[in-house]
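ingest -> validate -> predict -> emit
validate: passed (alphabet ok, no gaps, 126 aa)
predict: started
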Amino acid sequence: MCYKTHQEQPCEPVALPGEVEATILEDRVPKKTILFPTVDTVPQGKLELLGQSEHLKNLLQNPHLRRLLTEVDNGRDGMNAIRVAMMEPLFVEFADECLRIVEPPENEPQQIDLNELVFTNLQHRR
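emit:
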């Protein structure tokens, strides 16, 4: 009987609940909430620009850079890991490109006050 009814009125395939839920979740990418933003916190929109950079994508194809990034990410002392990585020209190129995208240079060159620079260096030495 079911076969006969099915032949007379073809049915549409029914989506399983998991498939529907997965489709809905794909449309809603969860935004990571930043609980304690600082002056150095990069807005989400600017972070998304990093993913659109062809230059960064090309750099990230380099296995040596990927290894350096993994070491920095997994390092116990993050600042020291970055300090060591900054000795590698490839990492410096990557960091510079990230900063260029996130903080584009202003049109006017900044005037550097040498007295302020010397004072800042003296403060860091203590």
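Residues 50 and 101 are 7 Å apart (CA to CA).
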